[in-house]
User: What shape does this take?
Amino acid sequence: MSLKRTIPMTTVSGFAVSAFFVVTILNILIKNMPSNIYRAGDELLKLNSSEGVANAVTTVVVYFRGFDTLGEIAVLFIASLGIGLVLKSTTKEKIESEESNFMLKTGAKLLSPIILIFGLYIMIYGHLSVGGGFQGGVIIASGVLLLLTSSNHFHISHRVVERLETFAGVSYVMIGLIGLIVMDSFLGNFLPHNISQMGLLLSGGIIPIIYIIVGIKVGSEMSVIVDNMLKRDIDD
Amino acid sequence: MSSIYFIALPLLFGFAVPILSKIGKDGVAYTSLAMQTLLTLLSITLALKLDSPIVEVIAIAPPLGIALVVDSVSILFVTLFTSLTLATSIYYMGGRDKIKYKNENKFFILLNMLLASAIGLVLSSDIFNIYVFFEIAGISAYILASYNKTPEALEAGLKYLITGAMASIFLVFAIALIYLHLGTLNLALISQNFNTLSGEIQLLIATLLLIGFGFKVEIFPLNFWVSDIYEGSTSLVNGLFSSIVSKAYLFVFFHILYLLLPHHSFTNFLIYLGVVSLIIAEIVALRQRNIKRLFAYSSLGQLALLFIAFSIQTTDSIYAGLYIILAHSLAKMVIFLSISYISDRYGSEDIEIFSTLNSPFLKWVLVISMLSLLGMPLFAGFVGKFLLLKTLGGMGSYGVVGAILFASLIEAIYYFKLIGMLFNSRERGESINISPTQKSILSALAIAVILFGVAPFIISDWLNVASEAMINSHIYQNIILGVKI
Amino acid sequence: MIETILNFLNQKEVIQATVVIGSMGLFLIGLFGLLTQRHFIKLFISIEIMEVSIFLLFIGLSFQRGLTAPMLGDGIKTFTNMNDPIPHAMILTAIVIGMAVLALGVSMAIEYHKLTGITDVDKMNRLRN
Assistant: This one.
């Protein structure tokens, strides 16, 4: 006895349309592989050592393309604002679920300090080796998530987080404006950044400072997002 | 006098709102108003004193870094956006004792972020930076659309978000291909080297850009949910979308297109797309009973008209297009601001409320705006449409002329129906008294509509320089690549 | 025998073609999901899959063999012979932005479901279509 399911027309037509589209693109891409000689990144690499930062990706993200990073921070800020707006209701309580698993509780108690310190370390280390503000902030937020899901008594104080966010955001734009006033270039590097300092913790001028600010902002915003999503209405 | 203030100040304001809300009861609102006034004055000063384009370099000189270019066409848009946002804020503050939004501070943050990102889109000269501002504008718009948190508003926000996310995917794809093949993200350098690519890749990148921006410029067939978005959000927000957001996206799309593919046969296809979009939008508008949906379809029609105007790619057609943008933004702002008041007072969004409207002032401003949108002489809408038709006739494209006239005929049917409903003497509802602040804003916008209709010579010099600046990719390349820091 | 196969696979064109085919395959899956699925969360997942496929394509094709990562480390003291840092920076930004938009979308969908109980895109017709 064969089980024959008729495939609905929408699936077939959807597959046909998308396959046609993708195969056309595939055809064009395979015939035209990128082979150019000029890359803007190579020129930026040559300029990188004058900034005194050991990690070229960090210099590109924070300094050469700092405006994009500012925009990205703005997107994250608005998203966190929107999630708080949309998910907010008059009375909110965290899910008073049953006591979480013994393994989760013990594991969280063991791991969360390590995760938080690791996140902080990665945030600060961004200009020396692999790492950075975004990465560190997300790790911190995952540590906070672990704490929130494992224990019913852990609460994030929204006032503290809001103050951290405000401080980080305002100082980022202020550093940019100070650069504008002092050096006539928004987000210019106005602190000393000697090449001889490359590889040390205090090097690169404003670059590690901005990346730490970014890390604080990302970490606090993602913790707030996670916290908002975990809370429910009291009558749910 | 740096142009970075247009973007940095609203961002600073947005981040600092928790501090500002401690100042006074209305600290946030008044700070926002003050900042927007400052920016409007700054943009008008720059517009009057601008004799050569200003390039503001951020951190490293182009083509390796990002620069903001203020030339005559970008300052036109910046002035338009700042003044319209200021008008919306003043209008909202004027009616605040009757209609106050919940979480008002967040509304001001979103409004200013929308302004900053629209200005950033217009000024930026780096394609990845344009993508970042694209996203900021998008995300502020999604939240503004669903601000009420009613199911209708959330549905509007969700539909907007899904189409917006689809748009960003195609845009990122296009940017990735551009960087892989050309090695640079600077618009001037891309435009110099774009014709070294093979024809297939050029067409692929152009198509991906068209799909990506097409969702936001609301061209057929990618505008399937636009009227739902307009219906679900409040009228104030509709005014912002229609007058500011879609114009910014339209300008960026054609700016990039003129730089990458000047005078290519691809633009012929765009003209036909615009014509189809125009006719469909106007025909569907005829059947609408909800006032916001009707004006949403009317906006779609005007955007399609602008699409046609910019796709023709001659200096005269761009002049006409810029004039239509000016006329349309002013008129639609008046209409949506008035509707936000009317629908709140009468509690309904059906077009029947036009026949029960009991306020002579509102009736007159609405009539002025609608006649301008229709294209009647003495109003601003006439100048743009007439110039466009003249250009098309001069090129011999009588088919497109016929299509535009046919669409205008359909527009005339529903606009005159609405005007008739406003002036017939039927059962009147309760009388409306609008506050003097709101009256002054609406009168200022309506007077501007009439002024630009009877005296187009006021801005004709400016628009001439602007349209030349927009169409000529060599001017733009020289501006950016000639900068030494 | 194995040698020739490995040498064939080790060529630059073959690696690049594999990257393109793989990421376009993911793009196909995402596009198919976007066009046919009706549940919110599945739509968002399809959008995310499409985004990830583009990132994969970009990074895969901008990688040049024989060059190292763009940072100083043990033994590497100068900024020469390194890969391009710009794609890394661009994708970092694009990942965060994509995630922020989708997080907002998911929370809007949660709230919409809480208010109306609808999870199907086609059934969202309170606004007359």
About this structure: Chain B has one domain: 5-481. The CA atoms of residues 10 and 271 of chain B lie 37 Å apart. The radius of gyration of chain B is 22 Å. DSSP finds 20 helices and two strands in chain B.
